[in-house]
Amino acid sequence: MLEVQDLRKRFGDKVALDGVGFAVQPGEMFGFVGANGAGKTTTMRIVMGVLQADSGEVRIEGRALTGEDRRRFGYMPEERGLYQKMNVADQIEYFSRLHGMSATAARAATAELIERLGLTERRASAVEALSLGNQQRVQLAVALVHSPSVLVLDEPFSGLDPLAVDALAEVLKDRSASGVPVIFSSHQLDLVERLCDSVGIISAGRMVASGPVDELRDSEGRSVLKVVVRGAAPGWADGLRGQVTTDGGRDVLTVEDGDDQEILRTAVRAGTVEQFGRQRPTLAEIFREAVA
C-alpha cells in the first residue's frame, strides 16, 4: 500500500499543500482530481522525490519511501521528457535499460507495449515526427516498460483520441489487476469515474473528498428522484418541491427530497410515467459540490 500522510508544502507565501493525505491499496486505481493549481502535480512530485515536502511523509508497505523504492516506480511527469531525434522503439528500449533490464527483456517489453499502444507503424519514426497524441503514447510506454511496482501518472490521457484512451485504459487495468497501485490525475471526470476504484478531490491544497467512487456517489442526501412523464398538462407538478424541464415532449421532474410514493401518484394522475427512480450523482457533480 502507498500512503501519503499530511503533506505540507509552501512556495514563498503560497501554500501549495495543506495536509494532503490518501492511501492507494495494491491493485487499486486511484483518480486524483482537482482544478489547475490545486496541488495534484506538487503531490506527485513529492511522491517521486522530485520535490521535498516541508512536512508529512510518503510511505509504502508501512515504512518510509526510499530512493530505491522510487526507482521501481513508473512515473509520467506533467512535462514530457522524450528525446526528439530518437526513434520510438529505441527510445522505449533505452529507458528500459536505464531501469536495469537486460537487452533481451528490454526488446521484448518494448515490442509488447508498441503493439498494445498502437505504435507499430511508428516504431521507426523519430519522436519529433509524431503527432502530440502519439508522443503521449511513447511517454506512457516509457513509464510502463520496466513493469513498475507503482504507477504515478500526471494527466496520462491528455491529448489522446478515444481509441488511444481505450488502449491505455486496458493496459492500466491489466497492471492494477496484477496488484500494482495506480495513481493518475485527470480532468476527464467521466473517465475517472469509469476506471477508478477510489478518488481523491483536492482544492487549494486540501483534500475535500476522498474514498471509493461508489461510496461517494451513494452518500446520503446526494441522490435525486427523476420522473419522466409524457402527456401531462402544464402545471401538473406545481404542488411538488422539484424542478420540471421539457425534453422532446416529455416533462422531466427532478426532486431532491419528498414523499416518493406521493410524487409517483401525482405523476400517474398527470400522464404516462415513462421513468421513475433515484439517480446517483456523477463524479463531475460531486466534484463541483466539493470544490464550491
UniProtKB/TrEMBL annotation:
GO terms for biological process: response to antibiotic. It is found in: Cell membrane. Keywords: Antibiotic resistance, ATP-binding, Nucleotide-binding, Transport. It comes from the Bacteria. It holds the Pfam family ABC_tran. The lineage of its organism: Bacteria, Bacillati, Actinomycetota, Actinomycetes, Streptosporangiales. It is a peripheral membrane protein. This is ABC transporter ATP-binding protein. Residues 2-229 form the ABC transporter domain. GO terms for cellular component: plasma membrane. Its main location: membrane. Belongs to the ABC transporter superfamily. One of its GO terms (molecular function) is ATP binding.
